[in-house]
Design goal:
The structure holds 2 protein chains of 2 kinds. By secondary structure, chain A is mainly beta. In chain A, about 0% of the residues lie in helices and about 45% in strands. Chain A has a 5-stranded mixed beta sheet, with no helix packed on it. Chain A has a 4-stranded antiparallel beta sheet with strand order 2-7-6-5, with no helix packed on it. The radius of gyration of chain A is 13 Å and the shape is globular. Chain B is mainly beta. Chain B has strands spanning about 5, 10-15, 20-25, 30-40, 40-50, 55, 65-70, 75-80, 85-95, 105, 110-115. In chain B, a hairpin with a 5-residue loop joins strand 7 (about 65-70) and strand 8. The radius of gyration of chain B is 13 Å and the shape is globular. Classes of the chains: A mainly beta, B mainly beta.
Chain lengths: ~110, ~120
């Protein structure tokens, strides 16, 4: 699987936007970019995914660079409940066999 | 609530013992995945079942085995337990698990295993 690189940790204040970066310079043309997050003492949960175009859903937005070598997960107004580990994952139909390959992720701390 | 249930929530056992972890997928999901989360290795994929058949294997030890039953629930069996097997074990499910790159997985709350 192609590798992703994320900062170990980031901090934000409540109600401010948060931009979580992910580098994936070896991404292939068929790799989808997925984001999952893991709240404390819980299992991971899906956040958003995309291929080439920017994506929005009720939880977040995903901005994908034109060359697809990086992406940014955007939380528009962070809440205390958004404090979690955020994982950027590439999924390829040929090699992933459905599994998710988690890296170390970014620990997001949200301050009141 | 993801709709995926796992039992038990916590398990404490001794080295050399055998335990069984159980997972019930979301209604309608045919695929079940097992993951292990430890402090040193992070979240790692162990094995995937689809509609009763093994579909993919990851970093699963030979001492570990799994199966998926006709009602689609799954069990992960861990035997000859070692201290290093202490970890969180997560089950996830998805609709088809046909390795479609857009597919979402739904995770259960996990079973915390402590081997003493």
């Amino acid at each position: 699987d192609a590798k992703t690189t994320q900062p170990n940790s980031m901090e934000s204040n409540e109600e401010e936007p948060v931009h979580l970066p992910c580098n994936h310079s070896t991404i292939s043309g068929t790799d989808y970019i997925h984001w999952y997050r893991q709240l404390p003492s819980q299992g991971p949960e899906y956040v958003i995914h995309g291929l080439t175009s920017n994506v929005n859903n009720r939880m977040a937005s995903l901005a994908i660079a034109e060359d697809r070598k990086s992406s940014t997960l955007i939380l528009h107004r962070a809440t205390l409940r958004d404090a979690a580990v955020y994982y950027c994952i590439l999924r390829d139909v040929v090699t992933s066999y459905g599994k998710l390959t988690f890296g170390q992720g970014t620990i997001l701390t949200v301050h009141p | 609530d993801s709709g995926v249930t796992q039992t038990p929530k916590h398990l404490i056992t001794a080295t050399g013992q055998r335990v069984t972890l159980r997972c019930s997928p979301r209604s309608g999901d045919l695929s079940v995945y097992w993951y292990q989360q430890s402090l040193d290795q992070g979240l790692q994929f162990l094995i995937q079942y689809y509609n009763g058949e093994e579909r993919a294997k990851g970093n699963i030890l030979e001492r570990f085995s799994a199966q998926q039953f006709p009602d689609l629930h799954s069990e992960l069996n861990l035997s000859s337990l070692e201290l290093g097997d202490s970890a969180l074990y997560f089950c996830a499910s998805s609709v088809e698990g046909t390795s479609g790159p857009q597919e979402t997985q739904y995770f259960g709350p996990g079973t915390r295993l402590l081997v003493l």
